[in-house]
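Question (not urgent): is this output format expected?
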Amino acid sequence: MSNTYFSNKVVWITGASSGIGEELAQQLAPQGAHLILSSRNKEKLQMLRENLSNHKKHLIVPLDLEDSSNFDELAKKVFDEFGRIDILINNGGISQRANASDSSMEVNRKIMEVDFFGNIALTKAVLPFMQMQKSGQILVISSVAGKFGFYLRSAYSAAKHALHGYYESLALEEEHNGISVTIVCPGKINTPISTNAINAEGNKHGIMDHNQETGMPVAVCVKQMLHALQSKKREVLIGNKEIWAVRIKRYFPALFWKIIKKQSAT
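Got this back:
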């Protein structure tokens, strides 16, 4: 694939202060992209920006996916600064480590607000500019948990399932406007996602799970994501042997349920 594809493209990354989002920024900056770096942690974003190639080309736009009230204003700010928005990478989110029976409705609503409503709210804020341009790409970071439910992930899995329905519909509706959608479903990736996950009371899990610690290196994951984005793939699974569970569920559902119930939740 061409290494000039992202040159001078305006790319907005949410959840840019750690994990997959941070690695996306580190891989896109040397390829000449103009980056908009977003998360709640302005300090970490500033540190990231200073360490990126061509750091003066990049813009920090702090946002909270749990509060979408200013997203229209932020999208206009970005458009006014760069004159276009080529790619929106909806990466920001929060995971879960709690049984469904123990999780409060407040926790369920928080996860849905961050992982689904906040996600699509930013897309809706950016969409008019992409429609006006008659071009744009949206990269949605889902999860293998968006393809099947799993222990300790009830609300998280629900939110990721919802993203698939929303963005598959959006992709069909916006194709005539030159807008494409790529949904990425990572499996076990070595990022702090489990550390930052919330428990039944809404507090941080605070533990690097074995599944994350032994997962695919984040740099390898992101390289595959960017290849899928450049290829304008509709959906892609990224990970090691765990992604085979998606295919097993589709073709051999009875076998899938026998296998999945024996897997470690962490």
